[in-house]
Amino acid sequence: MMLFSKSIMSEEGKLLGLIDEIATSEELVRVSRLHALEISDGCKPWVRSLHRTDKIGSLSEAQELLRTAREQAKRTAPNMPQHLACLDAVEEGLLHGGYKGLLKEAAVSKELVQSNTTKALTHLFFAQRATAKVPNITDVGLKPNHVKKVGIIGGGIMGSGIATSLILSSVTVFLKEINSEYLLKGMKTVEANIQSLVARGKVTLDKARKALSMLEGVSDYSEFKEMDMVIEAVIEDIPLKQEIFSELEKVCSSRCILATNASSIDLNVIGEKTKSQDRIIGAHFFSPAHIMPLLEIIRTEKTSPQVILDLLTVGKIMKKVPIVVLNCTGFAVNRTFFPYTQIPHLLVHLGVDLFRIDRAIRNFGFPLGPFQLQDLGGFRLVKASGKEYENAFPDRTFRSPLTELLLKNGRNGKSNGKGFYVHEKGSKPKPDPSVLPIVDESRKFMNIMPGGKPISVTDEEITEMVLFPTINEACRVLDEGVVARASDLDVASVLGMSFPSYRGGIMFWADTVGSKHIYLSLKKLSEMYGSYFKPSSYLEERAMKGMPLSVAVEAKSSLKSNSKL
C-alpha cells in the first residue's frame, strides 16, 4: 500500500488496524465527537496504531519483509527515493517504537519534499488534471451527448484493444472486420484481453461477463446506422482510410461522430473525400489501448466543438487521460518524438552500437530503448510513419536504409520474433547479434562515419543526442500552438511514450536542464552532423533570453486553427 498507493476498502483498513472507527455519513459527526471525548478523557490513545503490536509479528519476520521490499523497490523504482525512505521510517518504528518512527518519517518527508523528484511528480499530478480543460470547448456551456453505441472498424491489436476498453466501460461495441476469419480473430483477441485482466485481478468475473455481452461482431455496415460514434482502426493506409470514411458518411446518421485512430496521417487528407469534416476527429489511442491511459484527441479546423466535447466525455468514461491537439503530421505525441526514433538510426550509421544506445536510454529512465520500441511496433509501421515525416519535414528527417534492409531480410520485429532483438514466448527480449551484419551493410551504404571511423561518445552524450532533438521538436509543437499548454506535452510524454515520470515530463525536464545548454549543444551538433540538430527559433529565443521553454505558451495557443508545418 505504501509503496504503490494501493487502495483498500474501509472494512479491510479497520481489520488491518489502520482505521479506528467506521461510520455512515449520517453518523459521522456523532461518532467523531464520541471518539474525540474518549481521547480527551484518556480512554483512548491519540494515535492508536502507535501503541499496537499485535499486527507486527516477530522482528525477524518484519526485517525479512523489509529486506524483500527494499529489493523490490530498487528493482521496480530505482530512481524513486521516497520508496526507500518510506521503508526506512517503518524500520525505525519497528526497532525503536512508533513515536521514533513518526519522527523519522517527518525528517525524511522534509528532505524529500524539496527534492527534484517530488517537484517533478507534483507538477505531473496537476498537469494531468489540467488536460481535460480545453479552451473554447469545456468553458462555453456545452453539454455532452451520451454515446451508447460505438462501431469499430478493424479487429487487429489496436481495434480489439479499443473495443476491450469500451465494453469494460459499459459501452456497446460493434466490431467490424472484412471477413469471418479476421472477425473471429478480433473477437478472440478481445476475449483474451479481458481474460488477462481477470487473471491479473484487474477485473472481476462478473464484470468480464457483462463486458463481453456488450460486444458484437459484424462483417458489414448494416448496424452502423444506429451508431453514436465509429472509430476506424485499420492500418496506416491513406486510400483505405479515405474509402472507409466515404462509406461511413453514406451509412451512418448525420449525428454520428466519425473518428480515426490514425497515428500520424493528416486528418484533412483522410476526410478530404467526404462532406462531413465537422464530424471527423482523431481518436489516437496508444497500444495496448485497453491498458495505456493516454487518448490523443485531434481536431481539424472544421471539427465541431460538440464532437470534441463528446469524445472528451467518452475518454473520461474509459478512464483515459485526454489531450486535445491540433491536426498536423504526427499530431503532438508522435510528432514530438519522431526524432527519438530517427536520431538513434543516425547514431548507428555514425558507428555507435545500437544496443548501447538502448542501454543509455533505459538508464535515463525509459523502460525500453528506441530500437526495442521499434521492434514492438514493427518495421512496416516504422517505414510508413518515416515516409510521412520525410514528406512533412524533409530538412530534419534522417533517411535510414536500415529499416528497408531489415524487412528484406524477413525481419519485422516482435510480430515475427525477428528484429533487433530475439523475441521468444515467456522470456525477455535479448539482443540479436545476427542483426549486426545487416547493420554493417546499412553503414557501408550510407558511408557517413567521419574519416570512416565510429564517433566516440559517452552514454550521457548519446542520451542528449537522442533527447535534445526531441525537445527541439516539442518547441516547434509549442510554437505552432498544437497543444494548449506545455504541461500537456509533459503528460503526453509520460503516458504515451513512457518518459520517466520522476523527471516530470519532456518539457519539465528540459527546463531543469536549461534552454541555453540545450540550445548550445544542438548548435554544436548541427555544425558537426547536419540539420537534424538545428535549433528551432523558439528554442533559440528562449535560450538567448534565459527563459524556461514552457513560459508563455498558454497565451500563444488558441487551438482554433491548424498549425503550420
Commentary on this structure:
An eight-stranded mixed β-sheet has the order 3-2-1-4-5-6-7-8, sandwiched between helices. Strands 9-10 form a two-stranded antiparallel sheet. By secondary structure, it is of the alpha/beta class. It is globular and about 80 Å long. The longest helix is centred in the last third of the chain and has 21 residues, at 459-479. It has 24 helices and ten strands. It comes from Gossypium mustelinum.
Count of DSSP helices?
Answer: 24
Per CATH, the class of the largest domain reads: Mainly Alpha
Helix vs. strand class: alpha/beta
Q: Could you say what the CATH architecture of the largest domain is? A: Orthogonal Bundle
Number of domains: 3
Give the mean pLDDT. 93
List keywords for this structure.
single chain, eight-stranded mixed sheet, globular, 3 domains, Rossmann fold, alpha/beta, 565 residues, N-(1-d-carboxylethyl)-l-norvaline Dehydrogenase, domain 2, 8% strand, 51% helix
Layout of helices and strands, plus pairs?
Layout: H1 10-15, H2 28-40, H3 59-76, H4 81-96, H5 98-112, H6 116-130, E1 149-153, H7 157-167, E2 172-176, H8 180-199, H9 205-212, E3 215-218, E4 229-232, H10 238-251, E5 257-260, H11 267-270, E6 280-285, E7 294-299, H12 305-317, E8 321-326, H13 333-349, H14 354-364, H15 370-377, H16 379-392, H17 402-408, E9 421-422, E10 430-431, H18 436-446, H19 459-479, H20 486-497, H21 506-513, H22 515-529, H23 537-545, H24 553-556
Parallel strand pairs: 1-2, 1-4, 2-3, 4-5, 5-6, 7-8
Antiparallel strand pairs: 6-7, 9-10
Helix pairs in contact: 3-4, 4-5, 6-20, 7-8, 13-19, 14-19, 16-17, 19-22, 22-23
